[in-house]
């Protein structure tokens, strides 16, 4: 939630620090419960992976050139905002329905970014949308990873 809605300045370090601090507190409360501690670690890795991908995605959007295909009103930008809302719901209230919504939102964002024409060369270094899609694919892979605590929700 913080990675999506936090202030951009210093976001990466504040996110990392806050996540690790929360884990340390929870880990201490779960002393003597290795099953709970394993679950906490699984959640922490998922939160860090998705959170850092979101932060990089936000940075990529902040650096976009002034071209019509990168405008705030473009469908791919709207899809990313919808994905952010779906991810917030998922992390605030994990459940099968919210996981399904989040995955559908990620897929929609990937689809919208893929179907947007860019004026620059289609190489990774010169294409912001290719980099955006790579972060979106990473988020999707993290949500579906077999080690993710969300696998139990997927059914």
Automatic annotation (TrEMBL):
It comes from the Bacteria. InterPro entries: PHBA_efflux_AaeB/fusaric-R. It holds the Pfam family FUSC. GO terms for cellular component: plasma membrane. GO terms for molecular function: transmembrane transporter activity. This is FUSC family protein. The lineage of its organism: Bacteria, Pseudomonadati, Pseudomonadota, Alphaproteobacteria, Rhodobacterales.
């Amino acid at each position: 939630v913080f990675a999506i809605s936090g202030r951009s300045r210093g976001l990466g370090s504040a996110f990392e620090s806050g996540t690790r601090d929360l884990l340390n507190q929870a880990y201490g409360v779960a002393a003597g419960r290795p099953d709970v501690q394993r679950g906490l670690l699984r959640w922490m890795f998922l939160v860090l992976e998705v959170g850092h991908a979101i932060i990089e995605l936000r940075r990529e959007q902040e650096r976009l050139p002034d071209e019509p295909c990168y405008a705030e009103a473009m469908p791919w930008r709207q899809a990313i905002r919808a994905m952010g809302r779906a991810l917030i719901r998922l992390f605030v209230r994990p459940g099968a329905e919210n996981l399904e919504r989040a995955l559908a939102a990620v897929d929609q964002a990937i689809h919208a970014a893929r179907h947007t024409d860019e004026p620059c060369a289609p190489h990774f270094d010169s294409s912001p949308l290719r980099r955006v899609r790579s972060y979106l694919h990473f988020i999707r892979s993290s949500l579906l990873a077999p080690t993710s605590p969300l696998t139990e929700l997927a059914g």
